């Protein structure tokens, strides 16, 4: 079952259970997905692939984590709790993130695959990583690992 179908099924289940917070968060995911689909149309893509959906959800989680920090600074625990609950719902649909050892191995493989020899080749390595492991690899965490691998 694809992610789109999982969203639909989860929304039906949360509506039947009367879980307003979960239903609201899934509606946010679906709305964001529609926006991503519309933005992809000029490129000739009618519906984005699951890999792009995963990236979209990771961006949603990142945005909420940033909001949590700001709400903590403003002593708004109610909003911190709301954002944290949304993160938990979104993460239910995300594949597990690659661990540190897996990331190191993926970076070594991407460096070898692209023939990168210096930090100037970092873009090629990052593109290869995103193409191969985009759904399970946090690219923000992979950047410093790639840089270290290419620097020394």
Average pLDDT reading = 88
Beta-strand content: under 5%
Q: Major sheet: size, sense and barrel closure? A: none
C-alpha termini separation = 43 Å
Structure annotation, total helices: 7
How do the SSEs run, as a string of H and E? HHHHHHH
Helix content: over 70%
How many beta strands in the DSSP annotation? 0
Any low-confidence stretches, pLDDT <50, length ≥5? Answer: none
Word description of this protein:
This protein has 152 residues and is mainly alpha-helical. It is 76% helix and 0% strand. The protein is globular, with a radius of gyration of 18 Å.
Lay out the secondary structure.
Layout: H1 3-17, H2 20-40, H3 50-73, H4 77-91, H5 100-114, H6 122-133, H7 139-151
Nutshell version of this structure?
The protein is mainly α and 152 residues long.
Main features:
152 residues, mainly alpha, 0% strand
